[in-house]
Design brief:
The complex is a heterodimer.
Chain A lengths: L4 H14 L6 H4 L4 H17 L4 E7 L3 H7 L5 E6 L3 E2 L4 E3 L7 E10 L16 E11 L10 H6 L4 E6 L3 E2 H7 L6 E6 L2 E7 L9 H13 L8 E6 L4 E2 L5 E6 L3 E8 L6
Parallel strand pairs in A: 1-11, 3-7, 4-14
Antiparallel strand pairs in A: 1-2, 5-6, 5-11, 5-12, 6-7, 6-8, 9-10, 9-13, 13-14
Helix pairs in contact in A: 1-3
Chain B lengths: L2 H15 L7 H4 L4 H17 L4 E7 L3 H7 L5 E6 L3 E3 L3 E3 L7 E10 L10 H7 E11 L10 H6 L4 E6 L15 E6 L2 E7 L7 H14 L9 E6 L4 E2 L4 E7 L3 E8 L5
Parallel strand pairs in B: 1-10, 3-7, 4-13
Antiparallel strand pairs in B: 1-2, 5-6, 5-10, 5-11, 6-7, 8-9, 8-12, 12-13
Helix pairs in contact in B: 1-3, 5-7
The chains are: A alpha+beta, B alpha+beta.
Chain lengths: 266, 263
């Protein structure tokens, strides 16, 4: 039986807009991986219909531990939209989320298109900038539990992101080992997680090749200017209203956001 | 024989016969750390009587996660002996361990005594000769690592062996809290972490050890090698092969495990 992609995307979209958790899609009916990506793309189209725009992509399951936990051997890709972005030093509204979590990441920015149809071009050459980042993930599924295909359909739990100061990738790589920079996640001034950028695929720059591959497999455009969230450097921690969260990547910089609770509009 | 001696005997026998034993908390309880350190002293004294030489200390339970797991608010420590020391890439026979695990650390080597009961970070900085990247091999004489705080303290803080990198760095040339750690085995990352995970900084962990040791009358000495505590999660050693730890700013160190018995 073929999944009703439109209906499933609408269900997830409704869950996200009303901050109401829903049962996993796969509880009802199994989805193939391709169908799951179709649901994701349809959901993004619904957002676009409301005036939102895609500004980049994110990878999931980039840590060995998380991949093993999910029983998967490859990364997954989701899409980031303009409305998910909060400013560095700004506020993210957790009132519009189900059960948000936050994690420290490394972000890249493209100066040129990654063209999935052109296998000759080195995708790494398209990257111009790098920054510390925070990602807010929020599964639309009950209890943050899902199968691989469920989470792909749910835009890999993408909900928010904050980008710290951009720096030229070449400058950073001449100063530090980006493949092994210490990462600290602080919540209200307390250390909530520590790790290394090595937790991201062994080297966060490997995310670029992975994005190029995913773009090829799942028909994603990754044009110049796109932001790439490479993956988490520590486990995610719950994000509650009122808390101030800061991520620092040694030698790269820091990024901070406050969790606010404006609640739903209308 | 007192319960303390019975506990020590159990652990010493496990070590010498290479057969893991039951926990010792049936003898010394699971909360009294002083009793557990008395057992540790019996165990380490027996090693000294057999000719082993003390070369330093190890600090354990320096991460909040591990402290929470064992229900304690502070680290613990054990004694390092000369026969536990390996050099970068020197083969380590697996036969000397029961159930080894590895963790990447910063080794702090002292060039003066630290005998103040109120030693602070400044005292440690002043007393530090150099630091080295290190891999600690932890091991438990207690079957299945079924340990509570008193079991691991009595068992010399679950110490096994250690591997030191060979390229020393001065404290002024490194930023220990901002040191990233990545440990790989067979090309895959098995543990990642940061210096800040070790009580905020490995130097802070050594200051803690200096104070506690001075109070117990076993002050840290010039020349001591201090394994200051894990920077990331521990990884099991299940077969022969190598683990390579990279510590940003400090360099790298590789532990190579081989089948077979120690010479």
């Amino acid at each position: 039986m073929t999944a009703d992609v439109t209906a499933l995307a609408a269900r997830l979209d409704e869950a996200a807009r009303t901050a109401t958790a829903i049962p996993q899609l796969s509880d009802e009916q199994p989805l193939t991986l391709d169908e799951a990506y179709e649901v994701q793309h349809t959901g993004i189209a619904l957002r676009a219909g409301r005036g939102d725009t895609v500004v980049g992509v994110k990878l999931g399951f980039t840590s060995k531990a998380k991949a093993a936990q999910m029983g998967v051997s490859d990364v997954i890709v989701g899409q980031l939209t303009a409305s998910m972005r909060a400013e560095d030093g700004g506020t993210v509204d957790v009132g519009t989320m189900v059960h948000p979590r936050i994690e420290p990441e490394v972000a890249f920015r493209l100066g040129a298109d990654i063209d999935p149809q052109d296998p000759v071009v080195d995708p790494l050459a398209a990257v111009t900038d790098v920054a510390p980042a925070l990602e807010i993930i929020d599964s639309r599924y009950r209890d943050f539990r899902f199968s691989l295909h469920d989470v792909v359909a749910d835009d890999t739990s993408a909900a928010g992101f904050v980008i710290g100061p951009w720096r030229r990738l070449g400058d950073v790589r001449s100063e530090i080992d980006l493949a092994n920079a210490a990462v600290v996640l602080e919540v209200d001034g307390e250390v909530a997680g520590t790790g290394s950028t090595a937790a991201i695929l062994g080297d966060p720059l490997r995310a670029i090749e992975a994005v190029a591959r995913m773009a090829r497999q799942h028909s994603l455009g990754v044009p110049a200017g796109s932001i790439i969230l490479a993956g988490a450097a520590t486990a995610a921690v719950p994000l509650t209203a009122g808390s101030v969260v800061e991520a620092s990547v040694a030698g790269l910089g820091r990024v901070v956001v406050t969790a606010g609770k404006a609640g739903h509009d209308g | 024989m007192s319960d303390l001696h019975t506990a020590a005997k159990r652990l010493i026998e496990a070590e010498t016969t290479r057969t893991s034993c039951a926990p010792v908390r049936d003898l010394i309880g699971d909360t009294d750390q002083d009793l557990a350190y008395q057992v540790q002293t019996l165990v380490t004294s027996a090693r000294v009587e057999n000719g082993a030489r003390v070369v330093g200390r190890k600090i354990g339970l320096t991460s909040r996660a591990v402290q929470t797991q064992l229900g304690v608010p502070s680290p613990d420590f054990g004694t390092l002996f000369d026969d536990m020391a390996y050099t970068d890439r020197e083969p380590i026979p697996l036969g000397r361990f029961l159930q080894p695990r590895v963790e990447a650390e910063v080794a702090v080597v002292l060039d003066r005594d630290l005998d103040s009961e109120t030693a602070n970070v400044a005292d440690v900085v002043r007393a530090t000769d150099f630091v080295l990247p290190a891999i600690e091999v932890v091991d438990s004489r207690i079957a299945g690592w079924d340990i509570r705080i008193t079991d691991t303290i009595a068992d010399n803080a679950s110490s096994g062996a250690f591997v030191l990198g060979t390229n020393p760095k001065r404290l002024t040339d490194v930023d220990l809290p901002a040191t990233g750690m990545a440990m790989e085995a067979r090309g895959a990352v098995v543990s990642t972490g940061a210096g800040v995970a070790c009580l905020g900084s490995p130097v802070a962990a050594v200051a803690w050890l200096a104070r506690v040791s001075a109070r117990q009358g076993t002050s840290l000495r010039a020349g001591d090698v201090i394994l200051s505590g894990a920077l990331g999660p521990v990884a099991p050693v299940t077969s022969a092969g190598s683990f390579r730890a990279r510590l940003s700013g400090l360099g790298e160190v590789t532990a190579i495990f081989t089948e077979g018995e120690p010479a």
